[in-house]
Amino acid sequence: MIYFTLIARVVDGLPLAATIQEDDKLSRHIVEYQNQAKQLVCRMTPTSPSRCSLVAGSYVFHYLLDRGVCYLILTEADFSRTKAFAFLEAIQTQFFSEYSAKINTVSRPYAFLDFDAFIRKTQKTYTDSRSSNVSQLNVALQDVQRIMVQNIDDVLQRGEALSALDARATNLSSMSKKYRQDAATLNAQSAWVFYVVLVIVILAVFTYVYFRYM
């Protein structure tokens, strides 16, 4: 289930549009999660990951960052990440198509609340269990698996910037790549040594046989 959707301008954190799904279980904490969402947007920079999932207790924030606008949703922890990012791509495409000329000029919060109708309509499509055919979604499964997953406490309570998380992930990726390259080099060297030793042994046997029986 998608509990709420927030579209905000990254440069100043201005909320442009939002939709909330009524839910008795979440209603007592909805303000807390809304505040966390706004804090997330305020911590974003041009170097922040373009896509990220942030675990917040029993729920998960998923966001997509595109051309200075953040598209963010809160879902249940077991909600399909493939559907989550397919939904985000759908609203990003439509929102930019309708409002791209106005995004950087508006100063009033929630200036595009009329976009609510499209959000709700699209939300039904991606939360309907009958539309679970992953092959029809725009987001490839392998792409979703590469999206960074972090705990929201790393960003909010510890004050760690999203760009720092991205840098750390990039560093880990580089280390992993270097490890694979080193392993490949070591394997190649081991193979070379093996063949050299094999040739030496063959030559030694050949020499022994030659002088012993010739």
TrEMBL record:
Regions that span the bilayer: 192-211
One BP term from GO: protein transport
Any Pfam family hit: Synaptobrevin
UniProt keyword Disulfide bond, yes or no: no
Topology in membrane: Single-pass type IV membrane protein
Keywords carried by this UniProt record: Coiled coil, Endoplasmic reticulum, Golgi apparatus, Membrane, Protein transport, Transmembrane, Transmembrane helix, Transport
Keyword Endoplasmic reticulum: yes
Matching PROSITE patterns: LONGIN, V_SNARE
GO MF term (any one): SNAP receptor activity
Function description: SNARE involved in targeting and fusion of ER-derived transport vesicles with the Golgi complex as well as Golgi-derived retrograde transport vesicles with the ER.
Family: Belongs to the synaptobrevin family.
Protein name: Vesicle-trafficking protein SEC22b-B
Organism classification: Eukaryota, Metazoa, Spiralia, Lophotrochozoa, Platyhelminthes
